[in-house]
Amino acid sequence: QLRTVEVNREPIAVVVLTRGGKQLLDAHREPTNGRAQEFHAGLVKPREIAHDSQVYRLFQAEAARIDAEGGRVERIVLDYELKRDYQRFLNRTDRPPDRSREDDMVAFAADAKLPVVDGHLELPDLRIEYETADGRMEYRDVELVTEHYSRSQLAGKNAAGFAMYRAAGAGGRRGGTPLDPHHLERLS
Prior knowledge:
Blueprint: E1 2-7, E2 10-15, H1 19-28, H2 49-68, E3 72-78, H3 79-90, H4 101-112, E4 116-117, E5 120-121, E6 126-131, E7 137-145, H5 151-159, E8 163-167, E9 184-186
Parallel strand pairs: 7-8
Antiparallel strand pairs: 1-2, 3-6, 4-5, 6-7, 8-9
């Protein structure tokens, strides 16, 4: 479905998957190493389209790096999916009543292979799961750093070991979503 959204105060056309298209993809997907790729239909948060398009560019950049290393991308996981899984875990019906939130956070982090930095669960914008040239399954967590990040947020993402990118090329403006959404700078 073709939709029009506003990015940097300019209308742009975007194409989104319809529910029928999602159903078709879901009916024909095959699980890779236990988990199938998730698909999402519609335009949930139009105000985040600029950020989301940058995250897609992050994926393209990291996928090219993985490919150059002889790897093959198997699946991607969006921050939305990680957050949803975390909330489901925290609010599960079989949660022991004496279990603390911190204990749950640590348990979820260990199971999901996510870092806890200074008592905070670090979630990337994007996780890329891939097979290495020698057949091992690995993942790479990727983050889009914006002008809104505090020093502590940057420190947490850096300590988590995420591949970090910053949107650049906006006439001297640093971070954020630039006027030129095609230019990214890899920070780590």
